[in-house]
Design a protein that fits this description.
single chain; alpha/beta; Cyclin A, domain 1; Collagenase (Catalytic Domain); 2 domains; 13 helices; globular; MtfA_fam; Zinc-dependent peptidase; MetalloPept_cat_dom_sf
Length: about 260
C-alpha cells in the first residue's frame, strides 16, 4: 500500500486521504491523539496528509518502509503545529527512519584546540536545513512520556528562528525576553533537580537529558507538554503557559477526564 498511498498523496494531496482504518489504528494507540476532539482529529489528519505530500521518507538499516511508519510519524510530528500550520516545517524535506538506535559520528574541539572524534548512539537527530532522523523502535514507545518524534520536530521549530537555543520562532504576541527569562529559570530549576536526584539515586519526573542545554530542555518539555501535560503544568507552570501560548494548545485541559469522555 505504501507506494499507492504516498505516491498518490504527492501527486494529488488535496484529493488523497489517509485510509480510515490506518488513521484510527494510529490514533487509538496513542493517548495524546485519542484526547483530541473530533474537529482536532480531523484537522490533524488533513495536516498529516499535507505533510506526507510535501516531505520525503527514506529508510536505513534494512527497515522496510510502510504506511504505518509514515502516517504515525506524520501524525505525531504534526501535532505541535496543529494550530500553527505546515509553514512552520518549511526549509527541509527529508525524514530518514532507522529500525533502531543509530550511530552518529561527532567531533568536538577542546580548550586547547584539539579536535576529538567519537561516535554517539542516538534515537533521533534534527539537522539544521537538512533531514530529520528517527528510530522507528523509539517512535513506537510514544504514549508514556517519551516521544522521540515530537522531540525532534520541536528541534526543527527551534531551528526555524536560527541556532537551536530553546527559543522557537515566536509570534509577535509572545515576548522573546519573557520567554527567555522563563525558559532559563525553568531550565536552571530542572538542572538543580537532576543534581539532587543523582545525589540521592532517585529519578526525576522528566527525562534528565533535558538538563543538557536549553534547546534540549525545550524539546523534552515539548514531549511532556503533549504526553504529560498535567505533570508539566504542576512542576513548571510558567513554562507550561509559555508553551501553551506558542503551540496555541492546552493539552492539560484536553486530557481532563470529563473531556476525554466526550
Amino acid at each position: 500500500m505504501i507506494g499507492k498511498l504516498i505516491g498518490w498523496l504527492r501527486k494529488q494531496p488535496q484529493a488523497a486521504e489517509i485510509p480510515d482504518s490506518l488513521w484510527q489504528e494510529i490514533v487509538s494507540a496513542l493517548p495524546f491523539l485519542r484526547a483530541l476532539d473530533a474537529d482536532e482529529q480531523q484537522r490533524l489528519r488533513a495536516l498529516a496528509q499535507e505533510f506526507l505530500a510535501e516531505k520525503e521518507f527514506t529508510v536505513a538499516g534494512g527497515l522496510q518502509l510502510s504506511d504505518e511508519i509514515c502516517v504515525s510519524i506524520a501524525a505525531q510530528g504534526c501535532l505541535p503545529i496543529l494550530e500553527l500550520g505546515l509553514d512552520y516545517f518549511r526549509g527541509w524535506v527529508g525524514i530518514v527512519v532507522y529500525p533502531d538506535e543509530f550511530v552518529i559520528p561527532r567531533s568536538v574541539e577542546d580548550e586547547f584546540g584539539v579536535v576529538h572524534e567519537y561516535q554517539e548512539l542516538a534515537s533521533g537527530e534534527a539537522w539544521a536545513g537538512g533531514p530529520l532522523l528517527i528510530s522507528w523502535r523509539d517512535a513506537q514507545m510514544a504514549g508514556a512520556g517519551y516521544n522521540v518524534v515530537i522531540h525532534e520536530f520541536a528541534h526543527k521549530l527551534d531551528m526555524l528562528s536560527g541556532e537551536a537555543n530553546g527559543v522557537p520562532a515566536l509570534p509577535p504576541e509572545i515576548s522573546r525576553a519573557a520567554w527567555q527569562q522563563i525558559l532559563l529559570a525553568s531550565y536552571e530549576d530542572f538542572c538543580a533537580q537532576v543534581d539532587e536526584a543523582e545525589a540521592s539515586a532517585q529519578d526525576t519526573v522528566f527525562d534528565p537529558y533535558a538538563a543538557e542545554n536549553p534547546s534540549e530542555f525545550f524539546a523534552v518539555m515539548s514531549e511532556a507538554f503533549f504526553e504529560m501535560p498535567a505533570a508539566l503544568r504542576a512542576q513548571f507552570p510558567a513554562f507550561y503557559e509559555q508553551l501553551a501560548a506558542f503551540y496555541r494548545q492546552d493539552p492539560a485541559a484536553r486530557m481532563l477526564p470529563a473531556n476525554r469522555l466526550q
